[in-house]
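User: Here's a protein and a ligand (copper (II) ion). What would the complex look like?
Assistant: Let me lay out the input and then the predicted complex.
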Amino acid sequence: MADNHNQGDAIKEVGHDHAHDHGHDHDHHHDQSFISKYIFSEDHKVIAKQFLFTGIFWAVIGGLMSLVFRLQLGFPEMSMEFLRPILGGWITEAGKLEPEFYLALVTMHGTIMVFFVLTAGLSGTFSNFLIPLQIGARDMASGFMNMLSYWFFFGSSVIMFASIFLETGPASGSWVIYPPLSALPQAMSGSGAGMTMWLISMALFIISVLLGGINYITTVINLRVKGMSFTRLPLTIWAFFITAIIGLLSFPVLFSAALLLIFDRSLGTSFFLSEIYIAGEALHHQGGSPVLFQHLFWFLGHPEVYIVLIPALGITSEVIATNARKPIFGYKAMIGSILGIAVLSFIVWAHHMFVTGMNPFLGSVFMFLTLIIAVPSAVKSFNYITTLWRGNIIFTPAMMFSIGLVSMFISGGVTGIILGNNAMDIQLHDTYYVVAHFHLVMGSASFFGMMAGVYHWFPKMFGRMMDEKLGYIHFWFTFVGAYLVFFPMHYIGIAGFPRRYYAFTNFDFTKSFTDLNAFISVAAIITVFSQFVFVFNFIYSIFRGRKASENPWGSTTLEWTTPINPGHGNWPGEIPQVYRWPYDYSKPNSEKDGFGDFIPQHIPLSQTPHSNLPHEKEMLERGGNNEDEIKINEQ
Amino acid sequence: MIAGNTLDNKAEFIEEPQETLSMHPQKFALWLFIVSIIMLFAAFTSAYIVRRAEGNWLEFDLPNLFWVNTIIILMSSASMHWSLILAKKDNIDLLKIAVVITSLLGFAFLVGQLYAWKDLVASSVWFAGEQSNPAGSFLYVITGLHAVHLISGIVFLAIVLVSTFRLKIHSKRLARIEMCATYWHFLDILWLYLFGFLLLNH
Ligand code: HEM
Ligand SMILES: [Cu+2]
């Protein structure tokens, strides 16, 4: 890693004083120990990399776990003896996977992927890295809180990781931890210490998300450089900003659910428990409601899926516009649809609970609200496609992954509309159809967005390029692989295969799908192993990659005006001010102004008289760069 | 606009970009923190309503001490406001006393809540165990969590007190005590909401 330019500490001032005094001297060198530079760093770029490395670590763990349970599902007769060196006692005498461990694996896989990889690894990496760089700030509003955010995540990770090695196994009641399974330590072996550690880990995780989110929102609102109005923010920033707001509003609710669950487990309250017999013995719990937990959980759970997705959509907007060399189609519609999705995401949670015996009328209300989400989602898909339409497309690996995201988002979104009908959902709920739906729309789409982000901003992060050929190989294996794995799951879901079953060998109706299940497993193995092409490329390129130029993709945004290896404080001199929106790609007549097919955001309008649009000319004639003034005059 | 053609001869002038809106970042972050606390209690109180609608709900009277505690916390808000005025007037000696009074009133509120809990237990409203009912458990969780936040408010007051002794709070440096006041008044209003909510729904 090469962060060795301009280690100034003037940045600390920025956080405390005021946003816009960038007259500090950033060139004096300051000896920082390895620890304060790379470990307990307050520099947003270092923290972003810490999130990225931790996220990749978790992705590897989560991916390998999925291989184990895919082997079990695809080849239920197979001997797992070869896994004994790793899994030890979780392999039975007969060389089989312990059924309870199967449940532990799917639980950990879900938790890791949703929270640790696609929330912390995605938002944590790119919000931290891009917000200050793209809005023209020297760092986050509070570097210290930002550092705490990472270390809470780290602590949470350590606890979750340790729980995997418990003798009684980690939490096993699935990532949604419904009571009573999760509330009664005696319910199954994973409900004991494993569940306790899960709850502690998630409590730390929530603190981390809140600390990070408060910082992102504060930074976006308060630390923008002069000229960076809200209508000139890159769509990445809009996405991170809205994501942070959703997180701030929904994670406290998960915290409350977890707290009540802890009381039920450890102190004997009955919030979620009522009239339960275990092994013939009646428990004292009276008057609790397990459905109440589901309400609290999904009030976070549904917004959470958008917390995972929206940053990926933001990254895609940026990468697609840059590599299609076209302004994003419908910039304001893109902002409007993110806002629409954010608002709607809070009023649809009960579509996960259609079969809890809810009043059918209430179910219809939630169906109606749920289906409305298709509208802003469709606006976004439409705008991506129209941006690509007749664009001068450059197929970089990042661009491939972004287009892949659009494809996954559409394929997975369509099945969401089917699941959103409460009558249909009674048949499909808790089958592999749901698994297919969310792995395409959330798992794959967000993963593709994350990969697009890594390939695209790698040069800014490490000053080197990733290898393109390996990037293409990685893309095609992942893209084809994801469809081969998740598409057939729709069929077995419609056929009635329930989720979270250890084996289907006891049923007759499953017989005709045995081969398909084996096929999915083979595809999954290949897809997971092809991810190591990426891991290799990533690590190799950090040290040996081709040296990057200052603006390798010809982008308009501010991060590419920093030195190749930006130091603490990001810009050695003054921060460039902003005079235009971020999508001036292929603007007519820009060559007459001496620019190629893009005009960066920091170029004043007065320097581009030939390519200015009518409203920009008018703005100049009024003697400034003031958008509000025009609006006032129009009235 | 600034005259000059530094970069390009074609340019007659460099236009001046607009200032962006901007607030005190730490104060802003405090407001966001308050939003997350509001969501936490919104979750508890809506869970309370949902659970109560399902029946099997123990009805009982709220301890009368809650009324006394409400008056105490309102007084603490008043003395917090007084502290702020004193800080603005640079009356540092009185300021120290006012901050101490505010903390003591906060403390008194906590002790009062503890006695209110004792009254509840005396009338057999349990937090947990065989005879407990979610109605009682909710009451303890809601008041308990408010108390936890109030403790954090007292810690904040302690920080402010130390800062006044170090002469770091005066009419030119108000940010810290202003934030403390915002948080303290918020905890007061939060209690009024919770108490009103419990009065209406028990
Ligand atoms: C048009 C848009 C969408 C609609 C109408 C929709 C609808 C639904 C419905 C009704 C379910 C519940 C199925 C069941 O459990 O029976 C569901 C599950 C799920 N959806 Fe969507 N969805 C949409 C988009 C998305 C998006 C964009 C994401 C994520 C980025 C997502 C992630 C999930 C997840 C993770 C689950 C399963 C959670 C679980 O039970 O473990 N969905 N969706
Ligand atoms: Cu949902």
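Summary: Confidence is low (pLDDT under 50) at residues 1-12 of chain B.
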